[in-house]
Amino acid sequence: MDYVDFLQWPAMVMTILAAWLIGSLSPRRRLIGFCCFIVSNLLWGVWGWHTQAWALIVLQVCLFLMNIRGFTKNQTES
Asked: Pick from 8, 31, 49, 77: most CB atoms within 10 A?
């Protein structure tokens, strides 16, 4: 059994949780949301590498950079 295939499920859960938290009015919850997005980017990247989904990896790198930007902008607002 290939356990890396199961990474798509926690990646999906982290992405949904992150999207929920990003919509919060609380800067602390938004910060946690960006952290969840970053974790999901890493999980999707590992899964994409395993399945040779190169476009998914490029997408996750771009989203990771945008999430780092959101993380830092959220830090300066609070």
From this structure: 31
| Residue 77 scores a pLDDT above 80 | no
DSSP states along 26-73: -HHHHHHHHHHHHHHHHHHHHHHHHHT-HHHHHHHHHHHHHHHHHHHH
3 domain-assigned: no
Residue 40 is which amino acid?
S
Evaluate if pTM is beyond 0.70. yes
Q: Is 24 left (phi over 0), alpha (psi -120 to 50) or beta?
A: beta
pLDDT given for residue 75 in this prediction: 81
Domain that residue 33 falls in: 9-77
Q: Are 45 and 37 in contact (CB under 8 A)?
A: no
Distance CA 5, CA 11 (A): 11
